Amino acid sequence: MLRVIYSRPVLFNTLIRKTRQLTVLYRPLSAETLPIHHEIDDDHHHHRFEIAAPHYELLEVLGHRSSQLQSTRTPRPTRSRSTNSRKKQSNSNIESKTDQDEQPIKLAQPKPITSQPLPIPPNRITELSQKLHLTTSTKNQPSLSTSSSLYDETLLVEEEQDDHQMNELLISSPIEELFFTDDDKALNELLSSLHSTRVRRMHKYTDEQLSFMHKHNEFNRMLQSYVDVSIYNGKLNKVRRLLDDLLSDQEKRHSVKRLSWRYVSNIHVYNTFFFAYAEKGNLVALQKLFEKMRKYQVKPTLESYAAVLCCLGNMDLFDSSIARRIILDLENQGFRVVDIFNLDCLNHEDIQRILKVLKTFRPDFDIPIRPSTVNNKLLNHIYKQQPPTIEDQSIQIEPWWKKVDLISKLNDQIDVEINQKAKVQSINSLKTIDPKLLARHDNFKTDLQNQLTLGFATELEVLKKTTIEKDLKLDIIPFLEIFDVHDYVDLMSKEADRHFYGSDFYSLPFTSLCIGLGKQVYQKYLCTVRQKSGFIDKLRLVYNEYMSHVVTNDRFIVNEREKWNEIVKDKFAYMDRSDRPWSYTQILQIGEFLYGVMLKHLKLQVPLLTQKRQIEKKKGEDSLFYIVYRTPGKFTEKQLKVHPTVLHFFSHIPQTELEFDCSELPALVPPLPWLSCSTGGYLLNHTDLVRLPFSAREQDSRLRSLAIEKIGGVLDSVNVLNSCPWKINKNVLDLLIDIFQRGGSRQLSVPVSVDNTNVVEPLPIEKGLSVDERKRREMAIAYAKKMKSEMFSLWCYELYRLSIANHFRDEIFWFPHNLDFRGRVYPVPPHFNHLGSDVARSIILFAEGKPLGPDGLRRLKIHLVNLTDLKKKSSIDERANYADEIMDDILDSADRPLDGRQWWAKSEEPWQTLACCMEIARALRSPDHTKYISHFPVHQDGSCNVLQHYAAMGLDDKGAASVNLKPSDLPQDVYSVVVDKVEQERKQDADNGVQIAKILDGFVKRKVIKQTIMTTNYGVTLFGAKQQISRQLRDIDLFPNEFVPEASNYLAQKTFLSLRELFRETRKIQDWFTDCAGLISRIRGSAVEWNTPLNLPIVQPYYREIKIRQKGKDIYDNFSSFARPNHIKQKNAFPPNFVHSLDSCHMMMTALQCARNGITFVSVHDSFWTHACDVDRLNHFCREQFVSLHKEPLLEILSRDFLSKYEFKSSEYARVDDSQKQTMKLLNDTLRRVPQRGTFQLNSVLDSTYFFS
Fold first, then answer.
1. Structural domain includes residue 812
2. Coiled-coil regions in this chain (predicted)?
């Protein structure tokens, strides 16, 4: 993210223009920057203005529009693309070439509006509408000025199509309008008017501007990684010549006033050179490059000064006056010397060299401990609490860790991460393999390795010959020379193996496959760099002590991050933790190259299922892989297909070992604590703190710009979850494996194997069939294939999960965690974790055990009944009593799970119920159940948590009561409340003679509309609600199918009406969220972003697809921040995303509070887990933190945040016409219009038994 600052004639032009040139300079853009517009001087060489947030602006290129009417231009024809080749053209593609001749831009004229005058709404829009004075015809509509419109001819065509789509979405159907208030209808018509007058946003960019920004940004990222890898390969001088050539070309282009986006503005490129020269002690070369950097107005960072000091320290003798000037310059730039030691890019040798320089001035200088403080209003009181004492019996746990060889486990984990892969014994390896087939398999693998070796060398040589060194283009050759050939061959061979055991009907999109393979090369490179830098040795040194701390109760006294920083300083074990990022384009190109080798050179050259190969083959028929185009959903995808003979052959060879990436498995030791947004998770392999699409970098840049003390609470809360040790519930696992190996069971929710699917084989297609019969048989065959493919996918997923669990059956393990873009926490391993299904949750236990205590057994009983979902309307005491009443069934389930009465199998969560039955049985049969050591996690689940947050934000008294925020003797079930209200409406309609209401008699049940109630909070539309209800009605055998469409439509309408009436204040908030997001993305042209109460910056990564040509290929990117936001997704997704960011804050605050009080804590979003003996304390902290969170004026804070980012300033009004002023007022007033809150007393949550239960 860059900001335009002051410019001089010596720098770069922005766009090719005959009449005017704009020169700009760059410096990093801070997260707090506000949108400010400055006028552009008439002097061609002195333009000073700033690009600001909101969101993706790299540079402002508006100056050329002041003379656009004097230019000439030929509009590009609009290209139409088939839906079978790419997505439907609702997204605007960016062309990479700019036409030389330009014509004046013809502005879009507003469409006539034939609707009736807008109604004056009673409250929500009244004042706003009066200010706007919207017209209803084009006669009174002022036309847009030339200076304010930036659309070219191509964009206008696309905008017309896009407006049509947006109006369809924003202007609701007649059915949906039944549920809209006058306010909703008024706002929809206001937005509709804005679209039709083409006043879509006030901060506009043309296609060529966006293309320029995207290509410039991608070029600088590519250059950074190209330089880094080239230097690693020992080609420092060669890549320095490339940089000099780029800078020389840059200066030449400026002198003749020609544009090129290929100019260097990335300070990290220079820093990479600085550290390379520092490693060699070459101060002269470093000084020359530093001067050149200043010449081109690139501002140094703290890393730049650290590299210079490091270079001085690497010299036997150095001039102390140089060091003094560097330190003075550093401080003049606003940096502090002590902050150098907080940088992630310095290893222990760099620190020693810098310390050597600093001690020449201050011999007593000592390295400060890296700060671990947290500065947040909501968390300060938690960090100030006195930690529990070790003598406290409530946290004295059996020393399970004394039986574990942690040093050996650390070595195993490091070895796994160095190898990048780990092999796991498959639980399906029961079949014996024919020795002849096994021999053919070995010959096939050997031949495959040979073909890949020859193919890789051939294609690399071809690439080198076709690359012209003087063309200043950044190729991928250095990335293909990092390792030996056999390393790349090994990666390709393992990738091919994965496909040989895959599906014949589906693969991931080819682009996703290429990115995945490219990421493997990146991870291997990063791991290799860290090995050579001494990272592993220092890691071992720190981990020996860190593990001893984190597995004991000491972690509750000194948190993980604080302890790690203490150990690093004490042992002088500083490590270079920089992630050395590669660009999206390079990752994709590397993957495409390796897959290209596989596609072109892998041939079927050895016999597999037959003794001899067929001699005659058509060209291409013997390739192992093919490119095919499939339509798995709405759009056609480019996918990979394996030769049918190979798939058939491998189906006869059971996969005795499953190979997984190290990041797909739990860790054998406590994960690396999250120390910053780029350091944490696995030990050697890079783990992202926020999981985002590879090209969605905006949120990551926001995170990296924050001080650690601002997001320290977020890091510490994730570390709490990271530090929880787990073990396998062997009794349940053995039962599952037994059922799985016997073919699975639909009744017990264990996926069945393909051989056991019982799918009716369709009739074959024969000659002589009629057209209709042939079509029916083709559809039947396609349906059978689809069913088998889906069942096979489910079976494979369960195979992976159970095999991994079996692999760890005798181990203690940990789950590294990270965040999604909203702040919700997830385990990194995808196949086996506690966020999985009922089966996954049933086979894991806390490794740490605690005595049940006086109330623990009762809590286990209540938890058991909660899992069955049988007593959801009963009180806590009634649930405990019910467990006592059915104790005989509970013990029978524990003792004879498969050959008994199988009471557990009828539960809503059968396998967790069985595991709980076994735990209760063991506790009851122990000599003293209060002293029984339990490892079983007990859950406390929120009651429709999204609505709980909405009700708390709006202080909605009626809504709060329905979601258990208010104390009550019995739990309130919001689903049942809505069902009762819908049933009441149905009865009235039936009495009034409505036929469909009579037909639905007896069918309005909780299960039918529960999903609709739940997803309404996530922005589900009426159309989606009808589909959900339709599926439920079709599953009811007694309901007549011919009435399903009409009945689902009727129930969807009634459900929406009931929810609106029940949650009035909530709906106002949701409407305001939607209005704000729609206007921000539409008018400001920005993605919606905000900060959570714990200071986590969030940017919604929903953008329009852009297309950029690279080396003759089109690269499509749906997540580039240099594209227009997808305002439909931005608008619809913001309400649920904002609430999810709040529920993540609540979870994090509760996690920190529990850790501070010695309680084991794990979460599955709004389900909090702990030991049975600690449930009461967890409940207290959970409620306490919820009240603390919502006592903050969250809506007012959000409004101020939006205004600071998106509000139009008064100075901007003077430069626009009347229609744009109206639009500005609409945006500003909407952002200020905070919904009024109700009368609910928030403190009553503290006394609500069923808030979380």
1. no
2. none
